[in-house]
Write a structure and sequence with these properties.
This protein is an all-beta fold. The chain has no helices and eleven strands. Strands 2, 4, 5, 6, 9, 10 and 11 form a seven-stranded mixed beta sheet that branches. A hairpin with a 6-residue loop joins strand 5 and strand 6. The protein is globular.
Length: 124
């Protein structure tokens, strides 16, 4: 059974960095597109970034372009989200999700499997 577990969240000051990791178990990661999503209080869940399994193509939300980088290590069944120059508006619960597909999407509806989420707080 596919399971996803996020790690690496926490409290960071504005301008700081965090690296989120998503460990995938129960399946071979090679066959799955992986997405990172976030949900702030009172807001809808939004797609932050995703990475395809076919060609490694990526997607980024406009507001995180140039600051966040997604990468995957299929040998370790892990996907990372490196976040730099963090802003208070990046504060949210971050989720990773898996889709049995070649090409990833930033739309939540495309994902069948979700992690439990991890809190990221950007505050001074």
């Amino acid at each position: 059974q596919l399971q996803l577990v996020e790690s690496g969240g926490g409290l960071v000051q504005p301008g700081g960095s965090l690296r989120l990791s998503c460990a995938v178990t129960g399946v071979i990661l090679d066959y799955y597109a992986i997405g990172w999503f976030r949900q702030a209080p009172g807001k809808e869940r939004e797609g932050v970034s995703c990475i395809s399994n076919s060609d490694g193509s990526t997607y980024y939300l406009d507001s995180v372009k140039g600051r966040f980088t997604i990468s995957r290590d299929n040998a370790k069944n892990t996907v990372h989200l490196q976040m730099k120059s963090l802003k208070p508006e990046d504060t949210a619960v971050y989720y990773c999700a898996a889709d049995y597909a070649f090409i990833c999407s930033g739309d939540t509806r495309g994902y069948d499997y979700w992690g439990q989420g991890i809190q990221v707080t950007v505050s001074s």
